[in-house]
Give the backbone structure.
Amino acid sequence: MVKYRIVPASSRLWAEARSSLHPIRAETDGLEGYIEADMPEGRPNLAVTPKAQIQIESARLKTGNPLYDSELSRRLEVRKYPRIRGTVREVKELGAGNRYHVRGDLSFHGVTRTIEGDITLRIVNDRTIEIEGEKVIDIRDFGLEPPRLLMLKVYPEVRIRGRVRAERED
């Protein structure tokens, strides 16, 4: 097994919610964690289940709008639930190429749910990999109600997109 450490400055998370007025976007870098995989010839050997754990401080999610950021921090209860964590449980190849179906657990706002989605794996060089994927989640599944701010109604479905860059540990 090869262990890769996530590079926080090169890894990003984007979240986009729809509202009755306009999209609300938050983004941040600072993802942390690791990926372990058997990688002969630059491709994962799925006979040995890869392991991965990815996390981020929930307070890092910012929209750039102070009113929205204050409400987001309050709703996420960032002091009570300081981290959002994902753990990979299963990986399956989607045909030939670099696409994979991943199943794992997402722990968010004190609730853990099993989620699934597709990712793309790119080998950057012999020491670096990059993984991208996106998933729509319903925040109500994690005990959160969508906010209403004055005339603004936020819908519960949030599109999460991530790019993880990780470097091989020696």
